[in-house]
Design goal:
Strand content: 25-35%
Largest sheet: 3 strands, antiparallel
Number of helices: 1
Strand order of the largest sheet: 4-1-5
Distance between the termini: 43 Å
Shape: elongated
Radius of gyration: 16 Å
Length: 66
């Protein structure tokens, strides 16, 4: 899950919650770990962030040599 921060907020920045950081408007946060996904879900539910969809091309075309 990838989220984009809509409002400046403070949230945990480590697994145990002993360190926090401010997420600024426009920050894109990747959630690779389960604890990060929980925080991201909470931010989305609170209206502080929105889930973003990253669409990557399935294949790329190469230029043909003449």
């Amino acid at each position: 899950m990838t989220i984009k921060i809509l409002h400046r907020c403070q949230a945990a920045s480590d697994e145990h919650g002993s360190a926090t950081r401010y997420y600024e408007v426009g920050d894109v946060v990747e959630t690779g770990q389960p604890w990060q996904a929980k925080i991201a879900s909470a931010l989305v539910e609170a209206g502080l962030a929105a889930e973003t969809k990253v669409v990557a091309p399935k294949e790329t075309k190469t230029k043909a040599k003449k």
